[in-house]
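User: Before I run my own analysis I want an independent prediction to cross-check against. Here's the chain; please return only the structure tokens and, at the end, one sentence I can use as a sanity check.
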Amino acid sequence: MSNYAVIMAGGVGTRFWPKGTTKVPKQFLKIANETETLIQQAYKRLEGLFYDSKIFVVTNILYRNEVKKQLPKIPEENIICEPTGRNTAPCIGLACLFINQFEHKANVLVVAADHLIDDVPEFHRVINSGLKFVNDKGGIVTLGIHPTNPETGYGYIQYDADNFSEVELEKNGDSTFEKIYKVKTFAEKPNIEVAKAFLESGDFLWNSGMFIFRTDTMMEEIKKFMPELDESLERLSKNIMLKDFPKHLEKEYSKLKSTSIDYGVMEKAKDVFIIRSNFGWNDVGAWDEVYNIKEKNCDGNVKQGRTVTINTKNCLIINDLKMVATIGVEDLIVINTENGLLICKRGEAQSVKEVVDYLRRKGLDQYL
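Assistant: Structure tokens:
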């Protein structure tokens, strides 16, 4: 099999203000630990599965140098720079266009740069199953995560428990079998009542946003369901080797709508499959998740930087400046940086995006 990986790294991470900004979004921050950024962890998880020459990164033109700095082993020509963000469908289509320069039926894994995975060996096993499946049978495989709670911040995927294929993998002379199920439907982020119903049904999984497919399959589905994107990619394919390709790319991207691959392709395609996965996935979507994954002290606090905490419990405090002191508070998120100071209740960090939207409307871009 000829396998490639694509790391999507173009997001701005607005829910991680004030530490995450348009200049340095969350994928380039050391969110989960103090030694590696999220994109470095995403790359490291691919070691042993893919050659560096077959790992591509799609990012915004603003972050090209940051990607080069943080991922020095990735060939410079494998850093694909979008002139502006247009969501995941154009991102994945553009990556396929670049990979097709080398092989027209390559197997591709697409992952996000800002997710966390605890069990890397299990992740590798699942990926190998998906790569073998699409290599042999085609279709598009997505990875579904066993839900542990009625989460309202994730999309869901319903699968057909009675309609599956098995993929055989051999390791050290032993065979293992992976069931790959047919997808019934995709569901948007639900309210709490619907999320509880999904959990009770037993046939809904969290949508991880990771996909496995052959390039010819994905390009055919884009042609079928996203003709405008297909036409842009066709025009770009004729200019991809030219020195002024970035100008052609900017021109085409200015015409494209912002569309997710879920909405543009996955919800419409017939041959979509899912692997039930359990490798400790977290999309680290807001500061609340950072608190959840970090080790707490005896008071339930997570602290980073210069802090003094008196009668303070169950708080996340990250301080990049002189000193932060808290007295008699509980369940707070306090993030203090040169860009600003955030104070919010734990459980409400998703609303940080509203702060960013407000600052942008008021033209206060110096804080973004």
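Sanity check: The longest strand covers residues 156-171.
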